Amino acid sequence: MLVGVLALQGGFAAHARMLRALGAEVREVRVPADLEGLDGLVLPGGESTTMTLGIEREGLAEPLRVLIGAGTPVFGTCAGLIMLDRAHLGLMDIESRRNAFGRQVRSFEADLDFPDLDGPPMRAVFIRAPWIASHGPGVEILAEVDGHAVAARQESRLVVSFHPELGDDVRLHARFLDDVRARAEG
Ligand code: GLN
Fold first, then answer.
1. Which of 19, 38, 102, 108 is deepest in the core (most CB within 10 A)?
2. pTM of the full structure
């Protein structure tokens, strides 16, 4: 399984480490040619304006739309969630609100119950996180904080507004790799 991690900016190294620990082969993605042959892709957290500029500068928007639009599993976290929304790459039917919990003060942790993860709730680290302010009918909301959607799935696209690559709970990455494996073998 070859999984790409968008590495223009932000928290890509911790994602790569976690994916490798779970047995995936990882490639850092910086230019369109790096997308060749990927079975899955992670869009990490970071700063969404900077990431958008990087995607434009490198000519990555259209190749990303083609790859993800074809059904290649993608996992977007925090700024990566923002990248997939209607106002950015337009690959998920969600409207995200940046820094929705407040700019600096509201970096916090919360225990989240995911309907399809075995075991205890997931301890989630939120850093100037967005939330999903609205979504279309094809989107399933997986977790909320104070009534605000912070995790969602739409077909092969999984997004969370927190940082699952920090800490040692690998369940969401493992779940993502299950999707990648299923599609690669299917
Ligand atoms: N606040 C950042 C943004 O809007 C996202 C934060 C993150 O990725 N940790 O771009």
1. 19
2. 0.96
